[in-house]
Design a protein that fits this description.
Largest interface: A-B, 41 and 41 residues
CATH superfamily of the largest domain in chain A: ATPase, nucleotide binding domain
CATH architecture of the largest domain in chain A: 2-Layer Sandwich
Oligomer: homodimer
Distance between the termini of chain A: 10 Å
CATH class of the largest domain in chain A: Alpha Beta
Number of domains of chain A: 2
Number of helices of chain A: 9
Structural class of chain A: alpha/beta
Number of strands of chain A: 13
Largest sheet of chain A: 5 strands, mixed
Helix content of chain A: 25-40%
CATH topology of the largest domain in chain A: Nucleotidyltransferase, domain 5
Chain lengths: 322, 322
């Protein structure tokens, strides 16, 4: 292999993390720049390119780099654009031709996709889904994202935006308002913010005792709910059951769609371990068609979380042909 | 093209329809045999082979036939098997190695898939989805089936059974029992039998006037509901609105999965035309993520219904390499 490395970049609302990665999924060197300081996307791309060159040149050479993979909110794989990314300071304009500008500037091929798809590619290349051709990655963070792999490739669909499984409707009547503008979306319940919201709702609607009553309601996070549950708090445990049940119901429908070998869960909420996994698996198997009952694996991501976003993005760059 | 024809076979609960098809999708000659007379699958396969040879040999030659495509309930494309097909008299045994036995007997390559996937391939080859690489076929017949096309190929998933969209859960509380063993499935509402069931429920639960009260409740069919609606019967029209609304909600979730260019509706219930199409499209656009609002086409199948099943199955055989 003439060019043994790729660069992976994870663009989030506050920072863009940049890493140089080898074929075994080792992040050799890494850095980060702020992504919330400019609303000028051209300036941001320039800063990103400068940071890459600086990072790589310390110990390696730019001509050892095969290409660059980027995971970004609202990233479009087909077009290499970031579209309507309201969570990015520089994402205010409708369509940013990100890879085109960046590739010209840095002289390397650049691939871009959304963050959940990048995580799926990372999991397939380096993680729990190695060797799998059909699986679904569900990211349980601030929101709920997904990357669907079918026949060894990410499912992008007609327009590049397939795999928005956080926005299937789980509650049809009086569902919570979701950030996407719909109501009742999975994301409004099975995300970290959804868990905190469930806790606040329960505390307000009942007078059940709970450790969570020691925290001002508006400050409660999913981490607080997790810690209370670990101390045996019944209300907090019920929140995880409620969340896991709903996620399991959603997974049973996803299985009817693409019949995956496994579903891989990724992101902050997976730190709650069995608290979330147990109700997810029970509810999935209770709601799935008989032909798939107890046959679909549910796994936690095996990627080291601090590296995962970079690895996922970098994996895109391995698909670039020489 | 040395071998200009293929054979398409549609196996249903009562008959197996057989047709010889050319590359333009013309059914040149066709016949049918009973599928409900023997519980011996080997005898059925023998009868099928005899019927094919007899049909083709009348005006054509067997060595002009490139291969055979079959659509069958519970057909598995990967394995060429029919598995647990409780609706087929000869389907009682768990796994029938259908294509293996048939191919040996008749000396031609044989491909098999389930009926809805066959319909999707047919629609892509000859019908409303020509030129489309990403679409979803929904068959609205006695049951609700689906064939999902992604990147120009049918989505089969890990085990060959992907695309069971009739069995996503639409009603989570007190949902109707579905033939699959689950409750609340789309199929229990949006199929022809579901429409009849909705009518019976409405007639029993209310004392609304309706032309349908002239028919003994247990005899009401979806066709009766259609005819009443066409005569302006309000209750019957409400049944179509209810059914179309639910189907539209389901479609909005399917879009979030695979982001198709179009959704093609096929089967008996599509004969109701605007009565079903209007609420489907309205509900789909009301429930879909904003990025897809008013962007996804909903089309009726363009395949001539009497030929459609044969054409769909035959299209599989064109994919056989020489």
């Amino acid at each position: 292999m003439e060019k043994p490395y790729v660069v992976g970049i994870d663009i989030g609302g506050q920072t863009a993390k940049i890493g140089l990665v080898d074929a075994r999924g080792n992040v050799l060197v890494q850095t980060a720049i702020r992504s919330d300081e400019t609303d000028d996307y051209k300036k941001f791309i320039n800063d990103l390119c400068d940071a890459i060159v600086k990072l790589v040149s310390k110990e390696y050479k730019m001509d050892q780099v095969r290409g660059i993979g980027i995971g970004a909110p609202n990233g479009n794989f087909y077009k290499g654009t970031i579209e309507n990314a309201v969570n990015l300071k520089f994402g205010g304009i409708k369509v940013i031709p990100f890879t085109e500008i960046m590739s010209k500037k840095i002289g390397l091929p650049v691939r871009l996709t959304n963050d959940a798809n990048a995580a799926a590619v990372g999991e397939m290349t380096y993680g729990a889904a190695r060797g799998m051709n059909n699986f679904i990655m569900i990211t349980l963070g601030t929101g709920v994202g997904s990357g669907i792999v079918v026949g060894g490739s990410v499912l992008y669909g007609h327009d590049g935006f397939a795999g928005e499984l956080g926005h299937v409707t789980m509650v049809r009547k009086n569902g919570r308002l979701c950030g996407c503008g719909k109501t009742g979306c999975l994301e409004a319940y099975a995300s970290a913010t959804g868990v905190a919201r469930s806790a606040r709702e329960q505390l307000e609607a009942t007078d059940r005792k709970s450790l969570l009553r020691n925290i001002p309601a508006e400050n409660i996070t999913s981490k607080d709910v997790f810690e209370a549950a670990m101390q045996g708090d019944e209300l907090a445990k019920d929140i995880f059951d409620f969340t896991g049940n709903m996620l399991g119901e959603a997974l049973s429908d996803f299985i009817a769609f693409s019949s995956p070998e496994a579903i891989v869960l990724f992101g902050g909420l997976t730190k709650s371990g069995d608290l979330i996994m147990k109700p997810v698996v029970e509810s999935m198997n209770a709601n799935v068609m008989p032909l798939w009952k107890n046959k679909i694996k549910v796994l936690f991501s095996q990627l080291n979380e601090s590296d995962a976003a970079i690895l996922g993005a970098s994996a895109l760059a391995w698909e670039i042909k020489d």
